[in-house]
Design goal:
345 residues, alpha/beta, 2 domains, 6-stranded mixed beta sheet, 5-stranded mixed beta sheet, 16 strands
């Protein structure tokens, strides 16, 4: 049965590009209906805040027209500076007392106070002791959220879902890896933010956004090779497909070492403060995840198996309608967009 009335566009508005995915559901299966990416000029989105709304709006509108999108509802997400993700351990208490405690926790963490954010929280299943409960708190800046919503409504869409990148990653994983068990980390390496979501037996137990991504590598190439932003991005792309100057490897290693150190610090923090359990595996994705040497370097520094996320693992598509090489090239970048497209209003 086709559930078209429940279909939403998954729109990932990133720092360097906009990714869009539309899926159709047949029973428990999903089929790709539309997919595309449109690059954004530098500084269109700064620290995950929309800086050039007209440019971003025009880019999104053009992408929708080019793909001949007819759907009206959209799911979007935010991450980075506008978002706070915090895990706390609290004494067991009533629901009313818990709400007050969450408010107090947020007031300590947000400079402008709780009135500046939309927030939610969830008790982490299976992690409570006899006397304590672990709670995951999520907050998003109201102004930043409003800007993203206004962008989508401005191109004629109805934003029925506003999520976080890190949890959209989880939605994608649950559908594509339904039999996943144990403790693992999902890591999405974007242009300016790296999302980390640690899951145990299918449940998120820890989440964090790191303020580092592929743009750091781009700016390193710009400085060292005296190139423009666009030229540096092209150098990165040719490197991924093995067509670049071997001399670039030293710049790649510098970026990889910095990124892997930040990731390891976060994973170690989780391990030492929350469970003292070792991760069984790490799954990576995102536009910068395919830089040669990154996967092996991360495995070496974490002493953990590192695999590559495939957001199309359980999603079918017609090779007559979509070039498999195009899908393969886009695949690392589409984890968040597919996770959003899998949501229901």
């Amino acid at each position: 049965m086709l559930l078209g009335k429940d279909r939403v566009l998954g729109i990932d508005i990133g720092s360097s590009s906009i990714k869009l995915v539309e899926l159709e559901q047949y029973g428990s299966a999903y089929q790709l209906r539309s997919i595309g990416e449109a690059p954004l000029p530098p500084d269109s989105i700064v620290n995950k805040a929309i800086a050039r709304s007209e440019v971003v709006s025009h880019t999104l509108s053009t992408l929708i027209d080019d793909l001949e999108i007819e759907a009206d509802d959209a799911a979007i997400s935010i991450s980075g500076d506008p978002v706070l993700i915090k895990r706390v351990s609290l004494p067991k208490m009533s629901d009313a007392e818990l709400k007050k405690s969450i408010t107090w926790e947020l007031e300590q963490s947000i400079s402008g106070g709780i009135k500046e954010v939309n927030y939610d929280y969830q008790v982490i299943p299976g992690k409570s002791t006899r006397d304590n409960i672990d709670v995951l708190i999520v907050a998003a800046n109201k102004n930043a959220t409003k800007d993203y919503i206004s962008l989508v409504t401005g191109v004629g869409l109805n934003p029925v879902i506003v999520d976080l990148d890190v949890f959209s990653l989880e939605s994608m994983y649950e559908v594509n890896y339904p039999d996943s068990e144990g403790l693992l980390a999902l890591i999405n390496i974007g242009a300016s933010v790296t999302n980390i979501n640690i899951m145990e037996n299918g449940e998120s137990v820890f989440a964090r956004d790191l303020p580092i991504g592929g743009n750091k590598y781009t700016h390193l190439i710009m400085a060292e090779m005296d190139l423009t932003y666009e030229e540096s991005e092209e150098v990165k792309h040719t490197q991924r497909v093995g067509l670049t100057d071997p001399g670039l490897k030293q710049f790649a290693h510098k970026f990889i070492d910095s990124l892997c150190f930040e990731i390891k610090e976060t994973l170690d923090f989780f391990s030492t403060t929350h469970c003292n359990e070792k991760l069984q595996r790490i799954m990576i994705g995102g536009g910068s995840s395919s830089i040669p040497g990154l996967k092996d370097a991360l495995s070496e520094i974490t002493h953990c198996y590192v695999g590559v996320l495939n957001p199309f693992r359980k999603i079918v598509y017609s090779e007559g309608a979509f070039d498999p090489e195009y899908i393969e090239d886009l695949s690392p970048k589409m984890n968040v967009a597919i996770g959003l497209a899998l949501r229901k209003p």
